[in-house]
């Protein structure tokens, strides 16, 4: 696979921006979750096809409903994309579910849990150390 050219990188970014605007503001399908974001877009060098990675914050049902809604609105999305971006060919869009944002949120929660457990165990060990050594004054053993 060859490296993306500067032109292809710019096209990817522009298609991603416009696709996000279309999904956010122009599609009225109730199946599409309001927490839908376009993570990445990869347009083929011949501009015939496009993969759009979509992330939906929510449960599995919300993800599947959003994917169904987007697939049924492909024609409308392609038409709006053609009106907005002047390309030689308007690519056919294939939506792919991306769960990296959800994975990141989940890992963040797990890290927070581990940190809070470590802080609790540190506090408990400090309290137990004070109880063991708290009654003695320095040098009291020698008297």
Task: Give an overview in words.
With 143 residues, the chain is of the alpha+beta class. It has 2 domains: 93 residues, GMP Synthetase, Chain A, domain 3 (2-Layer Sandwich), CATH 3.30.300.20; 34 residues. It is 55% helix and 15% strand. The protein is built from 4 helices and 3 strands, in the order αββααβα. It has a 3-stranded mixed sheet. The longest helix is centred in the C-terminal third of the chain and has 34 residues. The radius of gyration is 27 Å and the shape is elongated. The chain starts with 5 loop residues before the first helix and ends in a 10-residue tail after the last helix.
Strand order, largest beta sheet: 1-2-3
Q: Report how far the terminal alpha carbons are from each other.
A: 81 Å
Rounded to an integer, what's the Rg over CA atoms? 27 Å
How many distinct folded domains? 2
CATH superfamily caption of the largest domain: K homology (KH) domain
Could you estimate the helical fraction of the residues in percent? Answer: 40-55%
Weakly predicted, low-confidence segments: none
CATH class of the largest domain: Alpha Beta
Structural class: alpha+beta
Oligomer: single chain
Choose one word for the global shape: elongated
Number of strands: 3
What attributes characterize this protein structure?
elongated; 143 residues; 2 domains; GMP Synthetase, Chain A, domain 3; 3-stranded mixed β-sheet; alpha+beta
